[in-house]
Amino acid sequence: MINTDAEPRVNIPKGSSISEQEGTWEPSSSTHLFSRINSKMTTPTECLHCMKSIYGKEYTVKNDEAYCIPCYDLLFSSVCEKCKGTIGYYSRDFSYKDLHWHDDCFKCAKCNRSLMEKPFAVKDKVLLCTACYTNECSSKCFQCKKIIMPGSRKIEFRGNEWHASCFICQSCGQPMGKNPVMTKDSKNYCVPCFEKHFAPYCKSCKKVVSVGGMTFHNKPWHKDCFLCSRCKKKLYGENFFSRDDDPFCQDCYADLYALKCDACNEPITALGNPQYVTFQERQWHSDCFKCGKCNVSLVGQGFLTHQDTILCRECGINPESEI
Questions:
Q1: Is the dihedral of CA 217, 222, 228, 233 positive or negative?
Q2: Which pLDDT does position 228 carry in this prediction?
Q3: Do the domain assignments include residue 126?
Q4: Cα maximum dimension of the chain
Q5: Cβ atoms of residues 140 and 152 within 8 Å
Q6: What pLDDT does 284 receive?
Q7: What is the tens place of the pLDDT at every residue in 70-118?
Q8: What's the first-to-final CA gap in the chain, in angstroms?
Q9: By its UniProt entry, which SUPFAM superfamilies does this protein fall under (predicted)?
Q10: By residue range, what is the domain housing residue 186?
Q11: Model's pTM, two decimal places?
């Protein structure tokens, strides 16, 4: 875009004539100045800024006020984005979105070709022709490594970009578009192919575990499929036991496999009172291992037996009395 908001003018010195019809000034032989001027306009005599006479000198008008050329350059000229020099009154000013260039500076920063009357792009206030912009600034397809041309359809996924035609399942080759995508080893798969090749299968129902899964003994399970092998109670989030890789709730495991206390006949499990005493293939909870006569704890103490009863040493001296 070329700045043409002001036109050069000149005050008419004595000895010059004005043609009312054409609105032009024909100078006398003693001057070399020439300019178009509105013959009906009141001729200014001094620059609004420096207040110096502009009689017989070239000047310009901005906002209905007259300025000599040096003052106009000082007050209103733009700064070239490339060379940082002033774009003077006599220079062409190429502008784009509040950025300005000399005509000689209006070139591609990469190939240095003139951009006059050619399409161009601006990146970080730097001019580029469309070819250089495409090569330098366009993203490259993660799959084929070729440039994704500006304006073409592309897919963005996990920080990378693809041509729409390159964003395909690595197994079946079908375009995935906006469908759900599964990733493994930096490769993308549609959900059916991913489940077919990589997804774990629930040990119980033998179906794919995609969400809501858990692992037990290195085997995948749906949380809703992780049940007691006997009573089918849900075990996820609960205390449980295992036997031969099968899970059991506490009650079923105790009923089927736990040792029974010789005193209270309750199961001895790790969840209740895990410490127990064993003697001659008999077991007791630590809290239940007491003298059968005086009820004193025998844990860590010597003891005697009388028939099926365990006794402390004192009671064992006369076991027949009040047992």
A1: positive
A2: 93
A3: no
A4: 157
A5: no
A6: 85
A7: 999 889 888 998 898 888 888 888 888 888 988 889 889 889 888 888 8
A8: 116
A9: Glucocorticoid receptor-like (DNA-binding domain)
A10: 169-199
A11: 0.37
Residue 261, CB half-sphere, CA atoms under 13 Å: how many? 20
Q: Which two tokens stand for residue 60?
A: 């310009």
Residues 6 or more apart whose Cβ sits within 8 Å of residue 246: 229
Angle at 294 between CA 290 and CA 296, to 5 degrees: 40
**Is residue 207 within 8 Å of 225, Cβ to Cβ?**
no
Residues 231-277 have pLDDT tens digits of: 999 988 888 888 888 899 888 888 888 788 888 878 877 666 667 88
- Do 286 and 295 contact (CB within 8 A), yes or no? no
Note whether 189 and 230 are same-domain residues: no
SS (H, E, C) 66-94: EEEHHHHHHHHCEECCCCCCEECCCCCEE
Unique residue bearing structure tokens 């017989």: 56
- Three-class DSSP category at 15: coil
CA distances from 188 to 98, 144, 238 (A): 44, 14, 37
Q: How many residues does the chain have?
A: 323
